Each structure stands twice: as structure tokens, then as C-alpha cells.
Amino acid sequence: MATTPDRIPADGGTAPIGGLDVSMVALSFVDNAGITRVKAVPRRRLDLAARYGVGVSPCFETFAFDDLMAVGRYLGGPDGDLRLIPDPAMLTELACQPGWAWAPTDKYTQDGTRFVACQRHFAARQTAAAQAAGLRLSMAFETEWAVGRADGTDGFTPAIHGPAYGIVRLGQVAEYADDLVTALERQGVAVAQFHPEYALAQLELSVEPTEPVAAADRAVLVRHTIRQVSLRHGWRALLAPCIEPGGSGSGAHLHLSVTDDDGPLFAGGDGPHGMRRTGEAFLAGVLRELPALVAVGAGNPASFLRLEPSRWAGVWQCWGHETREAALRFVTGVRGTEPWAANAEVKCLDATGNPYVIVGSVIAAGLAGVAEQLRLPAEITGDPATFDAEARMMSDVRRLPTTPADAADRLAASGVLADAMGAELHDALLTVRRAEAERYAAASPEELAALTRWRF
Length: 456
Description:
Structural class: alpha+beta
Number of strands: 16
Largest sheet: 10 strands, mixed
Distance between the termini: 26 Å
Number of helices: 15
Strand content: 15-25%
Radius of gyration: 21 Å
Low-confidence stretches: none
């Protein structure tokens, strides 16, 4: 991972960026509502932007998904300015948008110091903290979306039909899938799998894992590529969590694995399903923080239309081996592949979460588990929704937050995430989630679905 230093060099010493056959460059950042925001510069000004940044207001730190601004304890309001500095290591020509390139950015203040609430740097700090503890993480987001016809309305008209996971549905998107995967591969994103999914007109794509900050960068790039390729086919891509009220929605599950100098932590040990002791402690830390992680990674009011039992959305604070109703699913892989295939999946996430804050928060939760030498409780099997009260109590399975306000309260109460994020980022995220919760407390499922349909 290449990132800019903690201070912009006073002499403008960042190396020039060259070799791009484009006319424009998009410089992106993701706000605390999960919206990817952007500034663009002509190619001829890219070297200048790399040295001194592009201006952006810090008001975006407390923008909600509806573009309405709240004011937090530390951030929000019309004052001040920041500088967006592109990461040259991630600069990519956009096959999905000819004539353009893209780069993620880090945020600095006008005096050249790192902005304290920079979400991408939060992910980098937690990655560095893991490395300092002797741990290396590999991560990847799954991407689920539905395709609708671009018919000039804000409603959703499915562009494809057919059985869940069915080849009938695949046949209708064969050329689209080829164009999408080709564009992603040309942009340096290695695709692992593409398939039709369960929900209405839904598809899914998985990419190969990489280090955490790059995994978040890729999530941004993958989603943009999906939108652009969809438009070229006369469709619109719906990445919001609710496709249709009452039905299954779209998530953005996070897969992760951890290694140290002795090898993988999720294989080769005498813990549950071959976990080593440190690997178990890491996952126990993530499990403990799941209620707060809902606010981080699925805290939008529309997220709770997806977070329903018996839909494989991961609404229960528990873990299990290949148990898709558990919010934390452990995957061992085919026998003989465990050393490189074993991983964990955090399921209670969707595209309304900032991917940088998600990966940083999951790492922070896991590191706290390692520091405290936590142990996993007994795993569950089956669907906790079918457990009677006694069975649920005996298995210590709890339902994760069911409203955005409840999720925000759990984030506010998380000392682990508050300490890791720092006061400014933690408060800004809470400000956004609480503003969204209050503003749409009385909205119907249909209204929430319509409000968020094309925002992510």
C-alpha cells in the first residue's frame, strides 16, 4: 500500500504522475453516509493536484445520504477547507469511462497536516496497527446489485428475469457480464466470480482479496464500474440495500483472513475448525463489536429493510461454520485448501457504509480481541429465528440492532471504535447516522426504498 505522508511536503516534493492517455481525472472520497463524492481535474493539472491537493469543504464529513448537512460536535458547517491528495499508487485509467482516470484521495488540512477525520487514513492507521502487532490482513468486499431499465423514471423496472442463481438470468446478462469483467480486469481488479443472485434482477461479483486499504479502494472502483457499464447497456445499477420492500436486499459482505510470521491464523491450530489462538481472539473481538459495526456498515434507515431474519442478511450476533444466518460466518474451504482459503465473512454490511471506515473498524475490533485474548462462544447451527426462547438464551444469540437509532446508540457506546476512530471521526459518523435516523423515523418502507434507490 502506498499512501501520502502525514504532512504534505513543503517543497511540493511529490513525484509527478505521468503515462496517462486521458483528458480528465476523477479524485474520489467517501463520506460518512457512504456516498462517494468526487472532484475532477484536467490531466494537465494532475501533477499540481498531486503536490498541493484539490480543495474540498469539510462540511461533507456530516452530509447525510440525502445531501442535507448536520452539524456535529467537531465537524460540519460552512467554515474551513481541506485538500484532497490523490494516491499515485492507485491511479487507474477507467476502461468503463473512456478518456478518464481515477484515483482515491487522502485528506489534508490547508496547513499541510493530515486531516484528523480522514476515513482512508483511518483504514491505513488500523492496518499499520495490525502490522505493529505482527498481523497482516487480506480483505475483499462482495458486491451485490440489481439492474433496472433506464426508463427516465426514479422507479425500478427490472431489466432481467428468471430463477435465482439461474442460467436463464445469466443468459440475459452474458454480454454485460463480459464487458463488466473485462473493464474491471483492465483496471487492475482481479475478478474471482460472477453470478446471478437471489433477489429481484440481482447479480453478484466477487474480487480477489488484497490488503485492507486497497480492498476499500477496489470497492469504490468496482461500484463505479458497475454503474458505468450498466448505463452503456441501457440499464441502471441499484446498489442500495433495499430492492423492493418485503424482499431480500443487496449487501456488501466483507471477507477477511489474517496471517502472522508463522502463517495463517485461521488454519493449522487446535481452536474451533482449526483456528489458531490469535485468530480465534481476533474473530471474538469482531463478534463483540458487531452491534456497533451495524451503524458503521449498514446504519442507513433503508438498511434495516434488508436486515431481517431468515434472509441470510446476518442479523444475529453469533458465529458459525458456513452458517449464513450468523452475522459472522467462518469459511474453512475445501479440505486441503485451508491454509490459503480459510476466511471469515462479516455479513451485516451493505453499500451505505464507507468501505474505509468498515475495514478500519473491523481491524480495530479484531485487534482489541487479540489484546484481551478473547475466546469465541459456542458456534450456532441453523436459523436462530427458529430457536425457542430457551434455546436462544442458552446459545447466547442476540438480535443485532433493528433501527438506525439503536445502531447509532451501540456505536456511541463502543469504546473500542471510539478510541480507534478518534473523537472527530467517531462523532461525525454518529452525527450522520443520528440525523438520518431522526429525519426518516416516520418514513414508510416504500418511501425509504425510493429515497435511497439511486444514491449508492
